[in-house]
Specification:
The chain is an all-alpha fold. The protein has one domain: MFS general substrate transporter like domains (Growth Hormone, Chain: A, Up-down Bundle), CATH 1.20.1250.20. It is about 65% helix and about 0% strand. Helix 5 packs antiparallel against helix 7. The longest helix has 28 residues. About 25% of the residues are buried.
């Protein structure tokens, strides 16, 4: 039996770039706790109101789980990654008008959109990472995932003995 490398030679750079993104997404998630403290100091609010920061962040993950799965199944993981990048950028740029107006609700909306983008990125990016491995079987997409470019991951239907 031929031993396959962990990652194809032509996929090493994209694999590590995408994998390093998961560290950045984890850092963004970890910044919600200091935001609660900062908002309590800036705005006059209760602990409950300040905790809406984490509710907005994790609520986006809850709300976007199934739509992201449908998006990836219908259009592929590459479209999912690009959609996530777009949402994250819109959310990040939304902090500027929120800071100018000093309105807590605007901050929550910008944070929700940012977290929605990160949620889509994490969901779609995980499958792209998996597809970069030689011999990887990517599930659950029914259509052929279009990520990474120029590489078709093996699907369960390709396996011998699959019904």
């Amino acid at each position: 039996m031929k031993k396959l490398p962990l990652i194809d030679k032509d996929m090493i750079v994209p694999f590590w770039l995408l994998t390093s993104c998961f560290v950045v997404w984890g850092l963004a998630q970890d910044l919600t706790a200091p935001l609660v403290t900062a908002f309590k100091g800036i705005f006059t609010m209760s602990t409950f109101q300040a905790s809406l920061v984490q509710f907005a962040y994790f609520g986006a993950y809850f709300c976007l789980a199934l739509p992201t799965a449908f998006l990836n199944e219908r259009f592929g993981y590459k479209v999912g990654v690009l959609t996530g990048l777009g949402l994250a950028a819109i959310g990040a740029f939304g902090f500027y008008p929120a800071a100018k107006s000093l309105t807590f609700g605007f901050f929550l909306i910008a944070l929700f959109i940012l977290a929605a983008g990160l949620s889509v990125l994490e969901t779609s990016g995980g499958h792209c990472d998996q597809a970069a491995q030689p011999g990887a079987i990517v599930q659950p997409a029914r259509n052929q995932p279009r990520c990474p470019p120029g590489r078709r991951p093996r699907l369960a239907e390709d396996e011998p003995g699959h019904r």
